[in-house]
# Entry
Amino acid sequence: MLTRSTALKLMILCGLLLGGAVDPAQAQSPNGAEYTVQAGDWLSKIAEKYFGDAGAYPTIIEATNARAGQDNSFAAITDANLIEVGQKLWIPGIQGENTITAGSLSFQPVEIEALGLRAVVPQNWPEVESTDPLFAHAWSAGLFSVVNFTTLPGNDPLVGVARGLGVPPEALSGSSLGGQLITDQIGGRAWAIYTRDEGGRAAITAATAEQKVIYQVNIFSESSQAETIVRTVLENFEIVDPLAAQQVITIQSPAAGITLTNPFELRGATSQYPFRGSLVYRVLDASGNQVGRGPFEVVGRLGGSATFAVQATYLASADGPGTVEVAELSTADGTIITIDSVAVQLVADPPGYTVTIDDPAPYASIASPVEVRGKTSNKPYESNLNYRIFNAAGQQISQGVFQVVGEAGQVNAFGGFVQFVVQEDGPGRVEVYDLRPEDGSTFAIGSVNVWLTKPR
# Structure
């Protein structure tokens, strides 16, 4: 059995880190600090302040220009007599007021408002600019020097570690991953930490949980620095706003007070992508009896938000008030992570019919134009069905109408080719639906989650 200290030195080739798009940069010396130009500053004045020698200003120019080549928040100095108020300079050989030193490394504080966090990262690791939501909060000094922070809904740190490794939680107990799982109290928090050693590089996935939010830290660095980095980052990890990263589910349809058809359109959004990409709905009658229930998939990406639209069903014994709920359940113990609900009217034999999409198949990769075809259990009003396509952000990127072929009271068929435009490949959803003529509300809907691709 490895000790915790030894385990923290092991490496794990974390697919999350290696799979992300990180711009390479040269590693920098930890000795130095940022300085923001103030009114009345001259380079010589700043040099005298920090070095006791006004003539040492070329050192600041050289260091700032080197920094500008790696971090675009710095501007290169081309004229020693021209610096602007608010401009960032790099002063070599000093440390900022809030710098933390651990061993031979220095760390700088960072605020991650979107996650409600205050943390530290190795000094001189610039923040990564990436469109990948999993790398929205990452700092790097190159492909093999990365630290990033993410959150997901949940109450079990092991679920966070599993997501970082791209495996189900139950796989962590086996030896097939080739790493070491430990639990430790660091910085007053209980952490689950998974490590693996290979080739002189160390990757570490650590997770902790608070108020139904799992906070995940991924670190990839040289093995010789790994233990210092992970312990310093975790010891200085502070949750300043527990509500910032909590999961929020919003039911957009049905609207409050509406009388439900069967099936009915259940549509909404989540602030975060669920761990397994799925939610559960329930329909309750006035006495709290469950008269409808089912799991369904959402559309989105890990680290980002998600949307959903599904045909939901129920079977009530009498007309009356009811409630529709959508919840995310804990992968660890099945408890509710978060829930939203809306009050509706149920009917014992609600009118309606089913819309089934046969093509494209669930999770198929589609490009424009795509053939969409399927069937209905009855003839739609005026023999028309509407279609629309959404991207992962919930933006509608295509809409139109299909002509339905068939007779009333029988199975009807629909189909046609649909055009759409996407800026990048990603998850999406195709919907086919019928509208109630008297009020324009959705009467029946079929949907399928797909992978949208740009034309090749």
Notes: Residues 434 and 440 are 9 Å apart (CA to CA). Residues 1-30 have pLDDT under 50 and may be disordered. The chain has six helices and 28 strands. The longest strand covers residues 336-346.
